[in-house]
Amino acid sequence: MEINDNIKNPGVFIDIDGVVLHGGKPFEWSKEAIHSLWNNDIPFVFVTNGTYCSAVLVDNLSKILELPFTSDHVVVAPSPCHALTQYHDKRVLVCCQHDSYGLIAELGFSDYLTVEELVEIFPDLDYIDHDKRKTLLNTPLSAEKIRAQQEFRPIEAILLLGEPINWECSLQVLIDILMTNGDPRAKFKFVPFPHLPVIACNKDLTFKGAAALPRFGHGAFLECLEALFMKITKNELVYEELMGKPYLVTYEYAAEQIQRLSKNGNRINKFYIIGDNPEVDIKGANAFKEHLTELNCKSSRRSSRRASCQNSRRQSLVVPDMFASETKNTEHVESILVSTGVYNPSSDLMVHLRNLFVSHLDKNNNDECFTDGQAKNLNVPIIRTESNGQINLDKNELRDALSRKNSFISYFDDQDNIPDLTVDNLKDAVDHIIKQSNL
Which terminus in the chain has less CB density within 10 A, N or C? Predict the structure, then answer.
């Protein structure tokens, strides 16, 4: 079938927390917005940095939004682990919460144990709880535990799926395994180099839950792990693979799934990426845009300036040849930031400054205004809809806040975090996409 590039065939990436859901519940406009995409035959994929089992996530979204989603409609942070076949048969230590245990085998890992299971074999590794410490000191090891320790097979790789429950235990155990090269029975001699391969999914520092302020995410846990490893060993923790947003591999993986959902197999020629976190969703979207631009220029160099991490051994997983050929002619990626999650205009200094400038111009009957390009040069998001009431500081509050250092959150100090469009919510974003698609 011949493809006509003049026909618009959009595909949409949609974040979940802070965009579709708020504290696990849908926003009042979420169902209508998603149904609009569905009814207009615009393929979309939910791309989340969460670590849910795909079947559970699909079932949950299907019930909430009342649509028959399939596994092709969801991409979680660890989804690209399917391609890490070189690790699927290795002895892997996994750090996550209990509700992610079912995901490990789903990703292809066949020989693994969790941090909790490791501590069960070596109870002395978890020594922070004072009450537990007393119990350990007064309780001899059972014959079963002694045998389990003797038969223990060393860890060959570490998989960090998501933030654990007891951070202090997981941090201690992970440092132990890294410094003993996978065998907690070994006596420490020197820091192994290179250390065991570490695969990390989701470096979100925060995410939007039901509370007023964003909650700590897996990225906060990884920051602690990196800082402790550096403090103790004087060496940098190096990741073998980093996945989840903003890393390029996740956008490649999601784009491949969107292509499979395209009506009649039409090639997607514009991607819209909707998110609530400039540092994650928008930064990744801009990196993906740059990557596709390089493919258009027939460059063999992989994009790394924006989404790579200085302490990552590899920049991205290998993209299937089919996917590369499908997207190398794609020219358009548009990032859309919503104001219902991590990004909050009321705590954005640049929004307040822009409003002051605009009000000053209006007061002086000056017809000058910011163009889109000027706004980007000033690191100011371009807001196309009226505010939903979040920016409610009076003049005295604003003056006092501006007089203090670091009163506001700097969302856009990094140019790579600036979206193409900022709107109030998901419905505004979807309305924009449908309007553009019908032009």
Answer: C
Q: What's the rounded Cα separation, in Å, for the pair 342 and 146?
A: 48
Residue pair 207/342 in contact by the 8 Å Cβ criterion:
yes
380: Cβ contacts below 8 Å, ≥ 6 apart: 350, 351, 353, 354, 370, 412
Q: Which of 74, 125, 84, 126 shows the shortest CA–CA distance to 104?
A: 84
Determine if residue 231 is left, alpha or beta; phi over 0 gives left, psi from -120 to 50 gives alpha, anything else beta.
alpha
Q: How does strand 157-160 pair with strand 21-22?
A: unpaired
- In the block, tokens 């470096």 appear at 203
Q: What's residue 261's pLDDT? A: 92
Structure tokens at 207: 């995410």
Task: Give the tens place of pLDDT for each residue, 305-360.
Answer: 334 444 555 444 444 443 444 454 445 899 999 999 988 877 776 666 666 655 55
Task: Return the HEC string of 239-268.
Answer: ECEEECCCCHHHHHHHHHHHHHHCHHHCCC
The count of other CB atoms within 10 Å of the CB of residue 115 is 24
For the four alpha carbons of 43, 9, 271 and 433, in that order, the dihedral sign comes to negative
CA distance 244 to 49: 6
Predicted confidence (pLDDT) per residue in 78-113, tens digit: 999 999 999 999 999 999 999 889 899 999 999 999
Average pLDDT (384-409) is 57
∠ CA 162-167-170, rounded to 5° = 80
- Give pLDDT, residue 357: 59
- Say if pTM beats, i.e. exceeds, 0.85: no
Give pairs for 26-30: CB < 8 Å, separation 24+. Answer: 26/64, 26/65, 27/340, 27/425, 27/426, 29/425, 29/426, 29/427, 30/64, 30/65, 30/426
